[in-house]
């Protein structure tokens, strides 16, 4: 499946369980040349409660992560396709908490409501030319949001790899989301590019990172919520929500969860 270019191998947990998937097997299936190829690996398992789905997510290196916004969007659409949850609303049980989700329209769009989180806070990082601010937030997983002049000019692999394990982020590091306003002050959405830990490279979209970025831009008064954001491939994501004190609340992420192909992994 793909969520705005962030792609996943998603398994039906009624037929496969995580204990059947050691790290080396997950790495192999996520390999883009020798396997199916994916940024992440998901197992969806319905619980005994109607409309409740256990969401287990691992990065392409086999490391477990609490949450992934685009994987949750894909999981919402697939749960309906598999007839294990209703389109009008379901609950994903993630390692980062309960996430309410729903399908939007007859196509492949979905929407997820993220658990409340602490608002992004500025952190001290030595800037490079074109960088004007660094903000840390945990929206499902940790994100470092870097405000730049132009994301198209950022050395994602070099600078992203450098910042991903910066000491200010703690021992686990964080995803690094580079953001900038539209070129020439046009009315286009703000843009975002992501270096993702666990993948250890650029991914084409980052759902929870887009939410973190949207709250940073809103706090700075530069791109108020609700807002549209544009990925590196030009796909739009929508973020809405409010700020209450030092907390982000009622954050909804709108994006795609598109089934590309189905099959059996040998």
Describe it.
The chain is of the alpha+beta class and 266 residues long. The protein has two domains: 2-111, Diaminopimelate Epimerase, Chain A, domain 1 (Roll), CATH 3.10.310; 117-254, Diaminopimelate Epimerase, Chain A, domain 1, CATH 3.10.310. The chain contains four helices and 18 strands. The protein has helices at 23-30, 69-81, 156-164, 207-219, and strands spanning 2-3, 6-12, 40-46, 52-59, 64-65, 90-94, 97-104, 109-113, 117-118, 121-122, 131-139, 141-148, 175-180, 190-196, 201-203, 227-230, 236-244, 247-256. The protein has an 18-stranded mixed β-sheet that branches. The mean pLDDT is 95.
Task: Supply the key terms.
18-stranded mixed β-sheet; alpha+beta; Diaminopimelate Epimerase, Chain A, domain 1; 266 residues; 18 strands; 2 domains; globular
Q: What is this structure's SSE topology?
A:
Blueprint: E1 2-3, E2 6-12, H1 23-30, E3 40-46, E4 52-59, E5 64-65, H2 69-81, E6 90-94, E7 97-104, E8 109-113, E9 117-118, E10 121-122, E11 131-139, E12 141-148, H3 156-164, E13 175-180, E14 190-196, E15 201-203, H4 207-219, E16 227-230, E17 236-244, E18 247-256
Parallel strand pairs: 2-3, 4-6, 12-13, 14-16
Antiparallel strand pairs: 1-2, 3-4, 4-5, 6-7, 7-8, 8-18, 9-18, 10-11, 11-12, 13-14, 14-15, 16-17, 17-18
């Amino acid at each position: 499946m793909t969520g705005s270019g962030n792609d996943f191998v998603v398994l039906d947990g009624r037929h496969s369980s995580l204990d059947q998937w050691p790290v080396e097997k997950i790495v192999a299936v996520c390999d883009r040349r020798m396997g199916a190829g994916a940024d992440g690996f998901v197992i969806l398992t319905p619980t005994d409660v109607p409309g409740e789905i256990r969401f287990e997510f691992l990065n392409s290196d086999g490391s477990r992560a609490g949450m992934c916004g685009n994987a949750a969007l894909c999981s919402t659409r697939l749960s309906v396709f598999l007839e294990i949850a209703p389109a009008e609303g379901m609950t994903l049980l993630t390692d980062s908490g309960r996430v309410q989700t729903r399908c939007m329209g007859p196509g492949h769009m979905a929407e997820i409501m993220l658990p409340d989180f602490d608002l992004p806070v500025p952190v001290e990082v030595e800037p490079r030319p074109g960088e004007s601010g660094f903000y840390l937030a945990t929206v499902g997983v940790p994100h470092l949001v870097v405000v730049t002049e132009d994301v198209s000019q950022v050395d994602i692999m070099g600078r992203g790899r450098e910042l991903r394990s910066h000491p200010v982020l703690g021992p686990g590091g964080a995803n690094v989301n580079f953001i900038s306003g539209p070129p020439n002050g046009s009315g286009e959405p703000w843009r975002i590019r992501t270096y993702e830990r666990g993948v250890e490279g650029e991914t084409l979209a980052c759902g929870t990172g887009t939410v973190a970025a949207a709250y940073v831009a809103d706090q700075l008064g530069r791109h108020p919520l609700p807002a549209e954001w544009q990925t590196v491939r030009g796909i739009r994501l929508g973020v809405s929500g409010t700020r209450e004190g030092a907390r982000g609340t009622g954050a909804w992420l709108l994006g795609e969860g598109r089934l590309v192909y189905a099959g059996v992994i040998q």
